[in-house]
Amino acid sequence: MSSIFDDEEEEHSHQSLIERQSSVGGGSDKGEDNTPTNPSNGSGAASDGASRSIYRTKLYMALVLTVLATVIAILTHRYASSLDKSKFEQQFQDDAQEIIKISQNNAFKAFSTLEDFSRTITSLGNFKAGNESFPLLTIPDFEIRAKYFQEMTGSSWMTFIPLVDEETRSAYENYTLENQGWVQKVYEASSNLTINMPHPVPGSIWRFLPNNDPETSEVAPFVIAPDLYNMPPPGESLHPYYPLWQTYPAYEAVGIPMSTWVGFNLISLPDYVVPISSTTQNRHPIMEAMLFESIFTVTPEGQVPTPESIVFQPIFERNNDPTADIVGFLMVYLPWDAFFQNILSDSGYNLIVEVENTCDQTASFLLEGSKVTTLPRAVEAEQPGNETESSSADDQDESSSDEEHDDHHENVPYIDGRYVVKSEFAEFTRCSGNYCDSACDFQIHIFPHQNMEGVFQSSTPVFLTIAVVVLFAFTSVVLFLYDYLIQRRNGKVIDTAKKNNAIVARLFPSQVHDRLMNQAEMGGASAARKRTSGSVMAVIPSGARFKLHSFLTTSSSNGPSDDRPGHPQGDSLADFFPECTVMFGDIKGFTAWSSVRDPVQVFTLLETIYGAFDKLCKKRKILKVESVKDSYLAVCGVPTPREDHAVALCRFASDCNDQMNRLVQYLEKMLGPDTSALSMRFGVHSGAVTAGVLRGVQKARFQLFGDTVNTAARMESTGEARRVHASEATAQLLRQRGKGHWLAPRESAVEAKGKGRLQTYWVTPKATDASSTASGRTSDASSWGFDQHLHSSTSTSAKSRLNGKLQRIVEWNTELLLRLLKQVVARRNATTFPGKGSGPARGIKRLPGANVIDEMTEAVRLPRYKASKAPVNANAIELPLEVEQQLEDYVATVASMYHANHFHCYEHASHVTMSVSKMMSRIVAPEIETAVSEDMEANEYEAKLHDHTYGLTSDPITQFAIVLSALIHDVDHPGVPNATLVKEGTEEAVKYKNKSVAEQHSVDLAWDLLMSDKYKKLCGCIYKTQAELERLRQWVVTAVMSTDIVDKDLKKLRNARWDRAFSDETTTRATSTLDRNIKATIVVEHIIQASDVSHTMQHWHVYLKWNERLFQEMYQAYKEGRSDTDPSTFWYQGELGFFDYYIIPLAKKLKECGVFGVSSDEYLDYALANRREWEARGQDVVKRYVHTHADADADETTTPNRRASLDGTEDDGVEC
């Protein structure tokens, strides 16, 4: 706008000057009289017209700006409001889908757990001693099993109902009298302490008798008569009978204690006939109608009763037999609020979940974060079987139906019908057939609560609208003020020009006037050029700071070219920066973590994390100085000064902390267990630094020097994991910038080396002050270069029942086996098996009565390397999706088969698997590695490597089998040694003849699972021929059995094999195929044995972790009476002996094998170091073990018999 005004004014002024000049020149042409005439007479009208035109233009521009400001303000308000609305809608959709997903999973888990319980009962019925069978069955430890089921599913009541016919009735009634000891245990285990002590069970099958007294029948339709426990005459009897048997928890219904209810014939109540019949017909549990009141559950006074559904789980005579007869039921009351527990986080808003079914029932629940509250119903829904009058659907029009629907929601504080997400619920429980009257199809409707939209209604639209209006108003004022100042200047210029022109016109003739004007014009242009040149030079920075800026922006430098001291190339690139903030970051637990991984995994972690930090540096305009080992150094305010350097760097540190916590969760799937436990400490300090380019002969580096850097390092070293630790100087700068609410003072002063006691602070940037931070955070793993494999996006039923950490470990194990499986496929055409056995796989045949240990051989035969067929690239292999899914499901199922032992658990099996993978990757032939020439072909090199590593490097099936063996070697381990199992005379000990009981049992379980039809596609990918199948089986047996280091016969076999393979006589004679196979078998056994105790040959912290868990497991066995000796009495000396007589000799044998290169030195060095450390500190460590575990609470939540895979939460304790 100002440019338009300037052009018009200047044009007007120029026109006036021309008119004046013309007037003067005209006078001189008429005569010698040079007296000037009045120049304003001919230009007055034109000047007035130009002024009016300029005024109108300004008025139009002001009007346009006002309209434009109004329109943009309205659009801004609408756009900002739409953003709030879209955030609300997106969050609601995300929360609704999360509720649907998790509630469906909870329902599936509840019914799966119920099915597992019924299968357990079937197994118990099939293996009872004597001639007893269903229905004469008492479930051992019923109160423990039922309580566990209650904790897993949230059920309120459970009872076991055997199926009794007329023939077995008498025997059953006698059986209940003789086996009522479980009643006392249930009363003791029940949390309801108001229940009286149990009465004797009736000892008969009974039902209620109708009350025939006309005076009291309306009040009490049924009576408890003296013959209450006698069935009616045979003509009126109901059979088969469904008597209540074992029940949990203890209760008192309609005045009758629980023990008296034993034997009540449930089917004598008409309301239960149809549910039992529908379950019998469908042979799976049916979700029945909701019960809002029940005689078996009591709602506390003042609370809204939680609706429940009765579920009958059939119990079959045999497992895995679709034609098996039903021999009983588990009747369970499942409360509906349990399906929606612990889904949402406490985010300040609520959601409404409405459950509707085809039985005209509705229930509403309020989700307040993780809390679920049942909402009161405005209109009571009819219960199935109630004789209440209801109007016909044909007599109600659409409007009345809508009104009733609205009336139903009068107590539900949802927003309106615009926002609702609907989904079918538990479709796998639906009924089909003739007996489905009481069964209902359920649907859940999810609404946002009234407070949810308010949470997302921010004041941002109003502020933005005000900001737009203020911005336009300010801009308009500035423009008009600028125009006013320009007019004043132009007016002065015009007045001066008029005076000067008049003077020159009067003093000089026209020719002289023209020359003077031309000279002045030329002089002005020259001066302008000089001013322009000067201004350009003025803005060019100079000095050391400009050199620093150039160096950092171009990322190039030259080292000194002169060898003489004090003569670098050019001036030093350094400067002093009085105000900046420095950050140090360090990965906590990195040293111990890296000791169990190969170098590639270590660098993958560092490159991923620090690469993410570098992206944040670029976004936040922070300077990364360097990263050394696992430390990260960054600075803000260098080389470009910033007033907000403390605020910017604290936000950057918080971003790095959040990014670290997210990335390690993803990296655990790639780098194995305990990766998610890594965290970072951050230290921040503000002050002056000396910064410059430190040039060397090879390369130059940008460095910081000064006390500020040292103090920042002290802040990091005295900080805590996952927190930003700041000094008083940084805190003071944050307060000055209005960020004092970010600070939380430490409880006590910090003792920093070289600094004394310092008052420091924890820094937590608030979300409202760091809105831009959110945009800089990325949760998508693909943005950091992760390979999100297809199978990881699918969730198998076995995997879905694991907790979060176990799921990540399962994914890592799956990826490891998947890579090996691709190598199997890629190398299959490059190997051949000598002799017979190249036909299609027919299965493994075992002699009658033979066990796993009987399959042990002197050596496993490996295939010859077929150099004529070079292997293809394994990364190019694409396996069928079904194979990948089956592999993941198998690994997850194996994980679920591990018990929650402290040491022999799935987490330890994964630790062993990681060690096996690391050792397999380090199998090399040093003499070949040093002799490799550039012209050696790939086939020639691989053939030599095949010979020097005894064929292990060229047979992926062997590698796959070794890793698989490590994963399954402790499946279903009971948490006690084999000697205890033999002493206790367990079923497994008898089966395996007291030899390697746990190891043989693990092989049988895992192998039978793999060979099942469920994994047919997977097996078809692992092996194609009988030879490959037999080799896989031999390696699995050999590897798992090698973990039994106590069995004398196995130890004797291994010693003989070692003497034959690595004796002096063997090294001097030519190596035969048998000798090579024996050496390969020895190497594999030592890999498994070393990996099984790999924690003793790793970092001291890793050793202590697993050593303590083993102590805890053995101490628990001692407390349970399964071990006679307290481990604390021998643990210190026992570990020293274990190092001296097993670990250190084993580490030396790894070196003698000759295939592990320098890695064997690493294992031996760690073993010797840990032995020395244990000798010095072991007694104190054992005392700490005793203090920690000997006084543990008896109500410890983890028990050896509970499956870890069924725990849906992540625990900070034993996570296996």
Give an overview of the whole structure:
With about 1200 residues, the chain is of the alpha+beta class. It has 36 helices and 26 strands. Strands 15, 16, 17, 18, 19, 20, 21 and 24 form an eight-stranded mixed beta sheet that branches. A hairpin with a 2-residue loop joins β16 (about 625-630) and β17. The longest helix is centred in the N-terminal third of the chain and has 83 residues, at about 45-125. It is globular. The N terminus and C terminus are likely disordered.
What attributes characterize this protein structure?
1216 residues; alpha+beta; eight-stranded mixed beta sheet; 36 helices; 49% helix; globular; disordered N terminus
Summarize the structure.
Residues 240-346 form the CHASE domain. With 1216 residues, the protein is an alpha+beta fold. Strand 5 (252-253) and strand 6 form a beta hairpin.
Number of strands: 26
C-alpha-based Rg, rounded: 43 Å
**Low-pLDDT segments, ≥5 res:** 1-43, 224-235, 379-412, 506-513, 527-545, 554-561, 768-795, 832-837, 925-936, 1197-1216
Strand content: 5-15%
Count of helical segments? Answer: 36
Report the major sheet: 8 strands, mixed
| Helix and strand composition category | alpha+beta
Mean pLDDT level: 75
End-to-end gap:
73 Å
Portion of residues within helices: 40-55%
Shape: globular
Keywords: Lyase, Membrane, Nucleotide-binding, Receptor, Transmembrane, Transmembrane helix
Protein name: Receptor-type guanylate cyclase gcy
Biased composition (Low complexity): 40-49
Region (Disordered): 1-49, 376-410, 1192-1216
